[in-house]
């Protein structure tokens, strides 16, 4: 451990930023979190926490908080888009937890963020702090915010998402890439979808040019869904989200199973989210400025790993800053995390195409290979970020 712990400023009070603050506090390292929004608020969004994420959060003392706010899916099911045929199904729940050593949770993002903020403590959480500039000062960094205030830190962590402000101080690279796909989201009461089979399961509905993922959250009375379509071919808007009509939302799924049609028709979020990814970075840090989560490795959501990889990043970075001086910790952090996150990024891009195959021989071959999906994706879910860090010399 270093003789003097560095002061750390984290930009972004999302899942990765708050998890890092908790992890650092547990190791006696002072961390302040600066969030551009004026309140912690997420509308219509949920998070799937897999074992590689929940084992970290459990180790940080959040087991009871998470269990009280989360649903545990009963199965993982892949279905045919039109008739709803079960193409492949696997038990989840206790079987999943026994296999991977931690549970799988569906939780509303606002509930998760509230639990993390509670564990982090509000004294060093600063809202309405939009970063506009960084400068070096006294061998550290001065953060300048839009409201005219400033803060000093030895280290700056950019946990500010796919359109990261901090990233431009680390890497001179292209902006996030539009994937050619966009998504519709919603939180729907189970009672509003009488035709939906197995609402307690996490399910993928696969069809030509689109797929739908949904899973239960909270007490299981609501289902969170993400419906992804191969449209529009380009994204020209300045924002990553745009308003759509109810007809635009329903149209791609007009011929799908009644349960899917009920789901997309019931959402009150008439918005389309562009799905962006990021080219892998050559370096995640420059001096004492370092990236975490989507700011470093934005990925498509088809493995549900955006939040979980951010949690892994946070656990790794905090452990290394506890053991090593910053100039040694940051290269080790990059070395530990870069190859794994690149592999998850690549796998999520491949999954997008496979989930959207038209009916025919290629889709039939994919369906046969789905029987091995628990083994195929085991490398993602079984990973223990803290153990991997401790193994580093």
Automatic annotation (TrEMBL):
> Could you tell me the superkingdom of the organism this chain comes from?
Bacteria
Gene Ontology molecular function: monooxygenase activity
Q: Which residues cross the membrane?
A: 6-24
Q: Give the FAD-binding domain ranges.
A: 7-346
Q: Look up the record and name the cofactor or cofactors this protein needs.
A: FAD
- Cross-referenced InterPro entries, in alphabetical order? FAD-bd, FAD-dep_Monooxygenase_BioMet, FAD/NAD-bd_sf
Keywords from the UniProt entry = FAD, Flavoprotein, Membrane, Monooxygenase, Oxidoreductase, Transmembrane, Transmembrane helix
- Please name the Pfam families in this protein's record: FAD_binding_3
- The name on file for this protein is FAD-dependent monooxygenase
- Has the keyword Cell membrane been applied to this entry? no
